[in-house]
Amino acid sequence: MKRSLSIESESQQTRHSAVSENNASGIQAFADNRESAAAQRQLMTVMANSPQAVAQRKISQLMNNNPRMLVQRKMLFGTSNKSVQLAQSEKKVMQMVNVGFIPTNPAIFRRTTTIVGSIGTTMAGNKAFNNSQRPYIYANNVNNGGGNAPVVGPGQHPTDDWDNGALIDRNVVTPIEPEIDHIVKREDGGANDYGNARVLSKSNNTNGNPTRPSRANQILRLYQNITLSANIPRNNQPNFVYAPVQINAGTALDDTQAILLAFHAGIGGINGVAALSGSNVDSIIAAGRNTQNHVTVT
Fold first, then answer.
1. Residue 88, Cβ density class (10 Å: 0-12 exposed, 13-18 middle, ≥19 buried)
2. Could you tell me which residues come within 8 angstroms of residue 10 by beta carbon, excluding any fewer than 6 positions away?
3. Mind listing the pLDDT tens digit for each residue in 263-274?
4. What's the pLDDT tens digit per position in 81-92?
5. Which of 10-19, 33-42, 52-61, 218-227 is the most confident on average?
6. At a CB cut-off of 8 Å and minimum separation 6, what does 273 contact?
């Protein structure tokens, strides 16, 4: 009996010794693994920040942001990549056909303001006068049409272009606060063209009293150079052919050109400039530069 107990004790000691050795080996292996992982992470950090890796990332980023690559990715994968949408949006802006209505004779509809200014590619129908235009229009009125520089002297005040009433400073909100008005309304396709600008009191700009030109007394102005052509099939008749013609910015479009631009935008039943509505102008602008409905705009 005593011998048996002694044997068991020796056996247990052997097992305990083995377990201790295994535990020690496991702890050492764990420590080695931690040191190895830390070393690997440190090596990866060094490699990621190396000049070669930084240069490769920059090249990859430039390639990924290339508009042609973005479009190709969208075509291949059908993704709604935000960068692709932005590139297409910018391209669409460049391809728009900017047109808008202005009075044939602005002087009939404004007493003091005389500013005309240059034609800009940011001008178009149904667009507000921007922050760079407004000071020039205001100052031109204050100076009784005497200049286009945005300079207003001490004690100078604007004048209402409709009733010739004296207005107060534009920074004070009252019924006689000056506001810049589109002579041809924006919703009617009126452009943010200096020739379509006048200064009215806040009251006159909302009460509908100031007169506006009829369509017959308006011109449809082009704000970007385009080339226009057409080859339109007709039933039992020869095709209607409009040979390519370059039309320069600032041109007042004629009836045929207005009809073709409307047809290009998918608008039928237009017989001339006077028949265009404000929404028709929006459609012509949005149709862009391309070939559709047998009309080419470039």
1. middle
2. none
3. 999 999 999 999
4. 555 454 554 455
5. 218-227
6. 215, 218, 219, 220, 253, 254, 255, 258
d(C-alpha 27, C-alpha 106), whole Å: 92
| Residue-wise pLDDT tens digits, 112-138 | 999 987 788 889 999 999 998 998 898
Structure confidence by residue, pLDDT tens digits, 38-82: 667 776 776 667 777 776 776 666 666 665 555 555 555 554 555
The pair of structure tokens assigned to 128 is 């507000």
Contact between 99 and 253 (Cβ < 8 Å): yes
Separation CA 270–CA 277 (nearest Å): 10
Q: Please tell me the predicted confidence (pLDDT) of residue 170.
A: 60
